Amino acid sequence: MSWYSEQSSSWREEIARNRNNPQAWVNYFVASRYAQRPVEQLNQIVHEMELAVPGSFELLLVEGWNEGFSGKSYDWLSQAFAMKPDDPSSYSSLLLLNELLLNKQDRKTFCNRLFESGLVSGSLLNYSYNVLMSLDRDAVLITEGDNTTIPIFILQDIMNVREDVTVLNLDILLEPIYRNQKLNQVDIKLTGFDGPVAKNSKKLLCSTLPLENPDKKFYYALTLSGESIAAIKDQLYVVGLASRLSKERLDNIAIIKENLEKRFLLDYLAVDFNGENELAAGKVLNSNYLVPMILLNDHYVKDGNLEESKRLQQIVIKLAGEGGKTELINHFLHRNEGHSASFVLAEIKMKELEESFKPIKIITRIRNSRK
User: Fold this and answer.
1) Tens digit of pLDDT for each residue in 140-195?
2) What does DSSP say about strands 218-221 and 166-169: parallel, antiparallel, or unpaired?
């Protein structure tokens, strides 16, 4: 956030020198948004941009992004796409907006465009593949944010991976018309959830949906905010890169072992064939592997499978180093050496480890402003 805050100030200075530079306005808006500036300030940026670069492709983009999930946003971004169909800046937003409108074919079209643009992180696609492979057949997966939803749609729509999984994005699910139509389409019941969106709506959705649909298996991406899963956290069992909700005690270690040993694609964690930057979206999310891997390592040690433990620890130590968590992870890897202690599943909490991360969009790029 501090970097985005600095960029916001720098681009504001750039605009003061040249108010007719549309790309500078885009960078100023995006940096301000990721710096979590107040809504009023973002609206003011859009207003000033309307005066400075009216009718521009960049203005249509920013107006669409600022509006959020709505028909007006769809109109602005569709106009932007019509002006520059080969510019990928509109693709991810139009992908999600077509999901909002339940336009399955158009969603697939923009999944394909975004994938072919080459701007989707390869590590993010690998990560998302393993999220899907964490789930049972016909599962319901709850996600939040763009980075943990868009690549899953790409895998389902373009590569036909786990099309049996129903993906429910909490941000889009807050829209009442979409929510009613989508849930009816996938035969999921939800009652008493009408009226304006409340502050705790995401938390209510996470807890209410499984209550009213006990015949379905609900999974929650590890990237969900702690607030969203607060009401059900004691019923969640990590089974890979997602947690499964279960009222009964679940042998999640056996499921983790099955997933990591037989279902996951993990070679990309050991060798980076794409040469991605350390801040690539997929690499930032790789710390989420630490929880299931530490649980599995404990299982190996308990069973005396020291060879598998050593192999897994090498990956864990690498991921911990890349994520700045070496000291913390070393504590968990060696906590039982020289003494016996009972193991508590709640000792390491992914939400607390990852609280400093913020979701960002896939395709937006910000250039450093040069004074």
Assistant:
1) 999 998 889 999 999 999 999 999 999 999 999 999 999 999 999 999 999 988 76
2) unpaired
Any idea what DSSP says for residue 165?
P
Q: Which H or E run includes 142? A: strand 140-143
Other C-beta atoms lying within 10 Å of the C-beta of residue 288? 26
Strands (E) located in 146-275: 166-169, 218-221, 236-238, 242-245
Burial of 254 (C-beta count, 10 Å sphere; 0-12/13-18/19+)? exposed
Domains and CATH numbers, the chain: 2-103 (1.25.40.10), 122-251 (no CATH), 259-348 (no CATH)
Amino acid letter, residue 66: N
Distance CA 1, CA 59 (A): 24
Contacts for 226 with CB less than 8 Å, ≥ 6 apart = 233, 351, 352, 355
Return the CA Rg of the chain. Answer: 22
Per-residue tokens: 104: 């399955």
Task: For residues 202 and 12, give the distance between their C-alpha atoms in angstroms, rounded to a whole number.
Answer: 34
Taking the C-alpha atoms of residue 333 and residue 323, their distance in angstroms, rounded to an integer, is 16
Describe the crossing of helices 104-116 and 91-100 by its angle, rounded to 10 degrees. 160
User: Does residue 114 surpass a pLDDT of 70?
Assistant: yes
CA 317 to chain centre: 24
Task: Judge contact between 114 and 96, C-beta under 8 A.
Answer: no
Q: pLDDT: is 110 or 347 the higher one? A: 110
- Provide φ and ψ at 294, rounded to 5°: -65, -40
Residues in the chain: 371
